[in-house]
Design goal:
- The complex is a heterodimer of chains A (365) and B (71).
- Chain A is mainly α and 365 residues long.
- Chain A contains 14 helices and no strands.
- In chain A, helix 1 runs antiparallel to helix 7, helix 4 packs across helix 5 and helix 6 runs antiparallel to helix 10.
- Chain A starts with 8 loop residues before the first helix and ends with a helix.
- With 71 residues, chain B is mainly alpha-helical.
- Chain B has one domain.
- In chain B, helix 1 packs antiparallel against helix 2.
- Chain B is elongated.
- At the A-B interface, helix 4, helix 11, helix 12 and helix 13 of A face helix 1, helix 2 and helix 3 of B.
């Protein structure tokens, strides 16, 4: 076992929740609005089904290989070389998505708050901080999440409450103007975010208790769904048909808040939510990459390769796309298929192979 | 991003991490050297050829037929 630390199921939830929410809350409402119109609050509910399927598959595989991650058991299920190939595909996917997340983070910070700071400085400093957390191990990450997530939740609820006076319930009408299809179409892009719960395969083996991993995984899916429904609902109630024209609707909503000309410029709160949430998200992905690479190469320790991987991540973030528009285009046209293939179809095939060949670690021990 | 800073960061990472590894950790040393080298070369490549097609284009090409469904 490469990771010595152990965390509780509650800490798992607190790690996985921001892993999905952090970037979803800002980019997803705008993208969902493009497809679903005023039924966009319904889309995360459909999308959460994908999260349930991922957790279900990962929990089933985990039951067969209790102390291993997907990188290790894919080798046991289908043999050394095909298993390594699958491990490589998964790691490449995480490298690429973490590069995308870093770039989204960088573009957001530079675009909204630090217009004259070079992108590489914003991305590099985030990688350095996350790298320290990852080097500290899963326990350190879980504890830093325990510090940040309550703050993130509090600030999110604060914004939601302050928006209530400005809401326009009529924006929701008419319900299901064109049937259920638009809301289903709008669910395709948020699905990608729910699929990121795939990272649970690296957390289940380090849980203190073996039981309850799946139950708490499902609770995470539910919490994420509620948060996304709320953020979609509130942006819709506030902006109506304008929602899809914003890149960051929640950000604009926070800018909109003005109570008695005194409580204003709350976008800095969104910034705080974004930075601390993204820190957890990038750390979890970074951790997956570091531990996964170490397991793929059969290393005894993953810590020496954390910072070299950070360098690669910085390159990936800068290289991935020339601008934010291209990233959004990629998230809409390519990412859903890419994510479904790597995060649902691959593990599902592994699970089927494991069932057919009756592979599990219990027999070997 | 300039060549100078890429070299400085790479040297700092090596100075920080290399002494921490034991003599027995041969594999770790190889992995460390390989990954550092890969990051360094990619960074240098991006400085001189910033328009090199990135992973997005690569993956985008693979999924192009499906991607049209979403446009």
């Amino acid at each position: 076992m490469i990771e010595k630390g152990r965390i509780s199921t509650g800490q798992m939830v607190i790690l996985l929740y921001p892993t999905v929410i952090a970037t979803a809350i800002l980019l997803v409402p705008g993208i969902t609005g493009k497809f679903a119109g005023n039924d966009m609050w319904l889309s995360p509910i459909w999308a959460s089904l994908a999260g349930c399927i991922t957790i279900l598959i990962m929990a089933q595989l985990h039951n067969r290989f209790p102390r291993q991650t997907i990188i290790q058991y894919s080798e046991e299920i289908i043999g050394k070389i095909p298993g390594k190939l699958i491990g490589f595909i998964i790691l490449f996917f995480f490298f690429h998505s973490n590069g995308l997340v870093l770039r989204e983070y960088g573009e957001f910070v530079v675009g909204n708050f630090l217009p004259t700071t070079p992108l590489v400085v914003v991305i590099g400093s985030m990688i350095f901080v996350s790298g320290l957390a990852v080097r500290g191990g899963i326990e350190v990450m879980a504890r830093s999440a325990q510090v940040f997530v309550p703050i993130v939740l509090f600030l999110f609820i604060l914004i939601v409450i302050l928006l209530i006076p400005d809401l326009e319930p009529a924006n929701l009408l008419p319900f299901f103007e064109k049937g259920l299809i638009p809301s289903l179409k709008g669910a395709i892009v948020p699905t990608t975010w729910f699929l990121q719960l795939f990272a649970i395969t690296f957390i289940l083996p380090v849980l203190k208790k073996k039981e309850g991993g799946m139950k708490w995984g499902m609770i995470t899916v539910f919490l994420i769904m509620v948060t996304l429904v709320l953020s979609n609902l509130f942006t819709m109630l506030l902006f109506g048909k304008l929602t899809p024209t914003f890149t960051y609707p929640i950000m604009e909503a926070a800018r909109y808040i003005s109570i008695a000309d005194f409580i204003q410029h709350l976008e800095s709160i969104v910034m705080a939510i974004w930075v601390s949430g993204t820190f957890i998200k990038i750390s979890v992905f970074y951790y997956v990459i570091a531990v996964g690479t170490a397991q793929l190469l059969n290393l005894q320790d993953y810590r020496p390769i954390v910072f070299p991987i950070g360098g690669l991540l910085a390159v990936m973030g800068l290289w991935t796309a020339p601008n934010l528009q291209q990233i959004q285009h990629f998230l809409i046209t390519t990412m859903p298929f890419y994510a479904v293939i790597v995060q649902i179809i691959l593990p599902l095939l592994l699970l089927i192979a494991a069932v057919i060949f009756k592979k599990n670690t219990k027999k070997i021990n | 991003m300039s060549l100078f800073w890429v070299i400085v960061v790479t040297i700092l990472v090596i100075l920080y991490e290399w002494p921490k590894m034991d003599k027995e950790q041969k594999k770790e040393k190889w992995a460390f050297a390989g990954l550092t080298m890969a990051g360094f070369l990619l960074a240098v490549m991006l400085i001189y050829f910033p328009d090199t097609p990135g992973p997005n284009q690569l993956v985008g090409e693979i999924f192009r037929p499906l991607g049209k469904l979403m446009e």
